[in-house]
Amino acid sequence: MRKLLFESLIRPPLTERPPLASSTAVDELARALDGAAHKRLGRSLSIRAVDAGSCNGCELEMHALNNAFYDIERFGIRFVASPRHADVLLVTGPVTKNMREALKLTYDATPNPKWVVALGDCAGNGGCFAGSYAVVRGVSEALPVDLHIPGCPPPPIEILKGLLALLEGVNSKTGAARR
Amino acid sequence: MPGLIDLILAGQRVENHFPWSRAVVTPKKWGFAVEQLAEGHWSLLGLWGEPGAVHMALLDESAGDIGVASLECPSGRYPSVGRLHPPALRLERAAADLFGLLPQGAPDTRQWLDHGHWGVSYPLSTRVRTSAATAFPYSFLPAEGESLHQIPVGPVHAGIIEPGHFRFTASGETVVRLEQRLGYAHKGIEGLMAGSDIDRAAKLAGRTSGDSTVAYSLAFARAVEAALGVQVPPRAVWLRALMAELERLANHLGDIGAICNDAAFALMHAHCGVLRERVLRASDAAFGHRLMRDCIVPGGVASFLSDEGTTALRSLIAEIRQRFPALVELYDNTASLQDRTVATGRLKVELARQYRAGGYVGRASGRDFDARRNLAYPPYGELAFDVPLLQEGDVNARVWIRIHEVEQSLSLIEQVLRQLPDGPIRVDFAQTNRSHEGMALVEGFRGDILAWLRIGKGGLVERCHLRDPSWFQWPLLEAAIEGNIVADFPLCNKSFNCSYSGHDL
């Protein structure tokens, strides 16, 4: 183990350069956050992930955000274990009818101010599952959505861009609008 | 003793069912098949319904035969398989929820996928009923004894995990009973597939379980090709195997780290996470998508694999070969980690056999089955690989099976890259108006995935059933956790890593 730890000390880091916040996400947020002052979060964002019936693809890429390449915690963004600790609900899946109630309860358990990010194509409008007897058409049918990050699944770097836009947007509405 | 093939021959053979046979059997023969299952002579590959009929896919391991027995039940009732053969229970409960097919004599008739929220009952039957969308009460199985307490967990979990509910009954720290309640991720995939064209159904199949998107696309494509008699070009066959092994590699690497992380050993997690990311990036370079979603299509594959892609894969293999052995040594020589994984969550050999547990869950508990070897679907018949096998059945054994499978997949990828033939990667196939049925069994990273379908008028999918390996692994997790401490559940759960979405469909 010592050898491995030592190697990690002398090898250059794997971590990617920080990406710019997604400009479409910034625009979307500028609209969503209109009229409110959001200097509330400092530079941190706590995320509670809720799988509302995804195929698990989005979860895999969310996990990847924690690996050495993306290292999401360097931006002050972290995944938390309870909605009580969260600023953001990151919701995946088309929202199955069997999960709708649990999703709403999770939202209610999240303290204000809070934001909802819909992750992945099916979280947007149900994607290829739209029209089924067992799903509603995306997260916005169940909760007010502040930002949608598309993709099937979105690669980690796209998720990161969206979340950075959220962080910028909620900290300074003007900052988000200026870009 | 009559074999599976005799059962099929005695029934009314269904035309155009490939590559194995399907026969409509009498209730008596159905009962005989159930006995064979209960006595352990045959194993159950799947059980699914459609309006007015129930189907059971069977495997006779000693003879190497596979067949489908169908029982017509216009009244909606059929003799329960789960009554004598418990692995069928949840499949029967699912068929009851979707088709209103009632297994007679089944010991457990609680709803499974239907939680009362759909607004319809029996959505896939011919007698769909609208109903008020109110949650059903669900009674968990009792546990009796002094000072027992219950711990409800989920469907929203603490980590980044799929939704499901676990009801623990514990005596102090020790788990007395675990009962799962699943179905939260039910999207109605089989309902969406019915009446879809093949392209759309293939997309849905690839979104059944995100971590197995290659394996599902492959199973679906092979079933379509079996039904329609399509010959896939050799290069596509080999590229498919390449993708399947990359997917296996990525999942095993990620999970070996994640299991160690659940034993609070983050160093392994960090290093395995780097290797997993390397696999995903190389897959992206080679096939244009990190998870290789929609890269396998009926008739072939969607991307060619350029020289740059090949180079990316070769350097990936070199990197993993260089870095992985040190991680294996770290796992093997860290006493605090071994203390958590050895003898934890032991799955008995007999149970693994009875439930015909697939993948590393079965192979860590003495069940020597791998569809790549036992069925040798192409190109695996031309590739050299070992199927690792252990008897201990604990978390440690499941980790070791995965470690060995990483090594095997590395070798398989090298072999494929060496032998990859040139030529076209996709064929078109003719539309048909006759009814064709096809079936495939494909080894995903988690175990064997069954796909069965019927293509009908206008080349549309009439009925498709996908059976995830998790159907036979979830119940075993309930058994494996018994007598362990609650704090070891995440560890045991991750070492099984059953799919929620693949199971819930």
- The residue fraction in helices of chain B comes out at 40-55%
Find the CATH topology of the largest domain in chain B. Cytochrome-c3 Hydrogenase, chain B
Biggest sheet of chain B: strands side by side, in what order? Answer: 1-3-6-5-4
Which structural class do the helices and strands of chain A define? Answer: alpha/beta
Q: What value does the average pLDDT of chain A take? A: 85
- Provide the β-strand percentage band of chain B: 15-25%
Taking all Cα atoms into account, the compactness measure Rg of chain B is 22 Å
Oligomer: heterodimer
Provide the low-confidence segments of chain B as ranges.
none
Q: What is the number of independent domains of chain B?
A: 2
The largest sheet of chain A, given as strand count, sense and whether it forms a barrel, is: 5 strands, parallel
Which percent band covers the strand fraction of chain A? 5-15%
Label the CATH architecture of the largest domain in chain B: Orthogonal Bundle
The CATH class of the largest domain in chain B is identified as Mainly Alpha
Mean pLDDT of chain B: 94
CATH homology superfamily of the largest domain in chain B: Cytochrome-c3 Hydrogenase, chain B
Protein model, in words:
The complex is a heterodimer of chains A (179) and B (505). Chain A has 179 residues and is an alpha/beta fold. Helices cover 37% and strands 13% of the residues of chain A. Chain A contains seven helices and five strands; from the N terminus they run ααβαββαβαβαα. In chain A, helix 2 runs parallel beside helix 6. Chain A starts with a helix and ends with a helix. Chain B folds into two domains: 127 residues, Beta Polymerase, domain 2 (2-Layer Sandwich); 305 residues, Cytochrome-c3 Hydrogenase, chain B. In chain B, the strands form six sheets. Chain B has a five-stranded mixed beta sheet. In chain B, strands 2-16-17-18 form a four-stranded mixed beta sheet. Chain B has a three-stranded antiparallel beta sheet with strand order 11-12-13. Chains A and B meet through helix 1, strand 1, helix 3 and helix 4 of A and helix 4, helix 5, helix 8 and helix 9 of B.
